[in-house]
Specification:
This protein is 12% helix and 21% strand. The protein is of the alpha/beta class. Strand 2 and strand 3 form a beta hairpin. The longest helix is centred in the N-terminal third of the chain and has 13 residues. The two termini are 20 Å apart.
Length: 333
C-alpha cells in the first residue's frame, strides 16, 4: 500500500484550478436545457442520491461548474462526499454515452462509484467526441485493465487518475498510453505486477505514479532518462532494486522524486542528486543507502522536504557532516 502523501494528486489540483477555465458555480446564467436533462439522467443512472439537484438552473447545482460566459457545464464532480468508500454496494456497469450531451466538459470525477466496467458498445471510447475533456478521475472503483485501451482512445485527455482500482494486475499499461498526449497518470495501488516497461517514447509525460504496486527489477533500461518534461516520479512502495541510472541527473524539470520503500542501492555522493537542482521533494527512506551525505547536500539549497529515515546501512556508516542550518530544507522524522 502507498504512503499517505499524494503528490500526484496535488499536481492534479494545481492543473485544474477552475479560475483557469473562466468557470463559475452559481452564476445568473441559464444552463442549457439539454445539459440539464443529461445531468438528471446521469444522477439516476449512477444512483447519486446524495445530490440534491432541483430547479431549472443547473449552474446553481452542487458539484456542477459552468463556464462564466456560455453557461455550458465544464466540470462535474460526482465523488461520494463522505470518505473513501463506494456509494454503490453492487458493481456498476457504466454507460459512458450518457455524458455525450456535455460537449464542453473539461473535468469529470467518477471516483468511488463502484464502476467495474462499461456497457458493451458504450465504453470510454465513445468520449472521443468530447474534445474538451482534459481530466478524468476514476479512482477507487472496481475497474480492471480491460478499460485501458478504450481510455487511450480519448485523445483530449491530459490527466487520468486510476488510483485504488486494485484489480488491474499484469504489466503497467505504458504501451497503450505512450502514443497519447497524456501528461499525468496516477496508477497508485492498482495491483500491477512485473517489471516497469519502457517509458522513453512517452514524450508528453509530466507526472507518473505507480506507488503501492508489486513491481520489481531495475529501472536502468526503462527509458526514464528520455522523459525531458518529467516533473514528478513516484515509484514508492514496490520492490525495485539495483542502482539509479546516472542520466536521471539530466532531467532538469524534476521537482518531486519518491523512491521510498524499495530496495534501491544508492551510494552518496551520487551524480544524479548533484545535478538535479530543481528538486523540491525527495524521499529515499527504506532503501539501501550508504556513503557520506555532506558532499551532496550543498546542492540542495532550495529543497523543501528530504526523507531518509529507516534506511538500511550497508558496508559503511551513512552520515551527515554538514549542519542542517546551512540549507533551506527540512527533514521529516
Amino acid at each position: 500500500m502507498g504512503n499517505n502523501f499524494t503528490p500526484i494528486l496535488l499536481a492534479l489540483a494545481l492543473l485544474l484550478l477552475p479560475v483557469q477555465w473562466e468557470s463559475v458555480s452559481g452564476s445568473g446564467l441559464l444552463c442549457k436545457e439539454e445539459e440539464r436533462r443529461a445531468l438528471l439522467h446521469i444522477k439516476a443512472e449512477l444512483s447519486c442520491s446524495f445530490l440534491e439537484w432541483e430547479g431549472k438552473e443547473c449552474c446553481h447545482w452542487e458539484r456542477v461548474t459552468c463556464h462564466s460566459r456560455t453557461g455550458h457545464v465544464i466540470e462535474l464532480d460526482l465523488r461520494y462526499p463522505d470518505g473513501p468508500h463506494m456509494i454503490n454496494a453492487y458493481s456498476l456497469l457504466l454507460n459512458a454515452t450518457i455524458f455525450l450531451p456535455l460537449r464542453q466538459l473539461r473535468s469529470l470525477s467518477l471516483s468511488e462509484l463502484g464502476i467495474c466496467d462499461c456497457v458493451a458498445g458504450a465504453g470510454f471510447e465513445s468520449w472521443s467526441t468530447l474534445n474538451k475533456l482534459k481530466m478524468l478521475d476514476l479512482s477507487y472503483n472496481e475497474l480492471n485493465r480491460s478499460i485501458i485501451s478504450s481510455l487511450a482512445q480519448v485523445p483530449s485527455l491530459r490527466i487520468i487518475d486510476l488510483e485504488g482500482n486494485v484489480n488491474m494486475t499484469g504489466n503497467v499499461p505504458v504501451n497503450e498510453f505512450s502514443a497519447t498526449n497524456l501528461e499525468v497518470l496516477n496508477l497508485r495501488d492498482c495491483g500491477f505486477n512485473g517489471s516497469l516497461p519502457y517509458l522513453g517514447d512517452w514524450s508528453s509525460l509530466k507526472a507518473f505514479s505507480v506507488s503501492g504496486n508489486d513491481l520489481y527489477g531495475t529501472i536502468t533500461s526503462t527509458g526514464l532518462c528520455r522523459l525531458k518534461n518529467l516533473e514528478e516520479l513516484d515509484l514508492s512502495y514496490n520492490n525495485f532494486a539495483g542502482t539509479l541510472p546516472p542520466c536521471l541527473g539530466n532531467l532538469s524539470s524534476l521537482k518531486l522524486v519518491d523512491l521510498s520503500h524499495n530496495q534501491f542501492q544508492i551510494e552518496f555522493p551520487t551524480s544524479f542528486f548533484e545535478r538535479v537542482i530543481s528538486l523540491r521533494y525527495l524521499s529515499l527512506s527504506n532503501n539501501q543507502l550508504e556513503g557520506t551525505l555532506s558532499l551532496i547536500l550543498v546542492h540542495f539549497r532550495i529543497i523543501h522536504i528530504l526523507k531518509l529515515w529507516h534506511f538500511q546501512q550497508v558496508h559503511r556508516t551513512f552520515e551527515s557532516k554538514v549542519p542542517i542550518c546551512h540549507f533551506n530544507f527540512r527533514f521529516l522524522n
